[in-house]
Amino acid sequence: MKKIIIILSLICISRTGLADQFHYNDILIGDRASGLGGAYTAVSDDPSGMFYNPAGIVYAPETNTSSSALAYQAKDKTYKNVIGGNDWIRRSTSFVPNFFGVLQPVGSSVYGISFAMPEAVDEHQAQTFSNITGIDEYSIDLDEQDTIYKVGPSFASWLTDSLSYGVTLYFHSRERITSFNQVANLVANPTDSTEYDWTNLQIASSEFGIEPVFGLMWSPTERTSFGASVRKVFVLSAQTREECTKQALTAGSFCGGVSFNAGDYKHVIRTTSGSYIEPSWETRLGWATFPNSRDMYSADFNIHYGGGWVTTWNAALGYEHFFSARWNARLGLYTNNANTGTPTASNALEHIDEIGTSLSIGRFTRTSSVSVGISYLQGSGTKSGLNDIDPSPVLVDSSSMTFFLSAYYTN
Length: 411
Description:
Layout: H1 2-10, H2 13-16, H3 32-35, H4 49-52, E1 65-83, E2 86-106, E3 109-129, E4 137-158, E5 163-185, E6 196-221, E7 224-232, E8 234-247, E9 252-254, E10 258-260, E11 265-273, E12 281-289, E13 295-305, E14 312-322, E15 327-336, E16 351-364, E17 368-383, E18 394-410
Antiparallel strand pairs: 1-2, 1-18, 2-3, 3-4, 4-5, 5-6, 6-7, 6-8, 7-12, 8-11, 9-10, 12-13, 13-14, 14-15, 15-16, 16-17, 17-18
């Protein structure tokens, strides 16, 4: 019985939370790019190019141009056979204005400003388990939000007749809030503190920094282009505040390393400044071809390296077809690989590689367009170290569905 309670007490929300910092393509950004699965580095000829490859915005129409996109995402993760043969099920839903951008040509150059929200997790888990040996009832209640905002100016111009360059400087902000509560009752209707173990944990963390994006675009022919961009977040300030209240049934170390004796009730507050995991560099390489006036094919290969994460890669393929001057369709296939290594007892971060597909339909007028679309991601992987007693791997299934609506305007 004591071993089971120790296992429950050592479950640490900072190691099992779902707020997803392990992937780079959870939400596709932009109007045209979303339907193409993010295969946009060698296209980037509208405001969302400021996010993917700012060198491409020199190809935008020679007028004021703006675009915006809204996305609704529903995401599920299932941790298999975590406690007493039970699954943990965590769900996240979010509705976000994930992109807005405006371009303005000045002479042979183009200036712009854009806002992007590439991450918006709003996760919940509320479950009660009653078939665990030695425990009458175990309840877990989790709420977690993790949001990333980027906003900043862009500039692009020509180096030669076929080669352009561009720069975006994003101001980066990330906010994460976690509320976690777990209660383990040893007997039905407990009457004193020796019959239950309770933990409440609140975590609020924030970081602020800058993210420069440098891009090149080369068009050796009218129908073929190649693009490249490199980016990295430089964190300038970060802070985390943890507040933990615990009724400990057994002795141990909980809530940030504070020691508890059996039967102790403690309240701990800890604030840490400058504590964060160094972000990775990202290099994007892209190719696009326009074989005729109705079709376009594109491909991207992205590598993420350095910082505090394992080197990983992602790829995307896109296809666009114009049925007429007013209607088109876009298809995309892309990966969303994890930047974590294989989970072990010492590396408890989960590793889930995902593959996704996207589809959008657009309607055009002389000065505007509206697109609606859907993308779907699915993957599976493992996680270990859910507790310090039994670090054996846990299987994890993941899936998400995103609906997006975007608009494009030029005058």
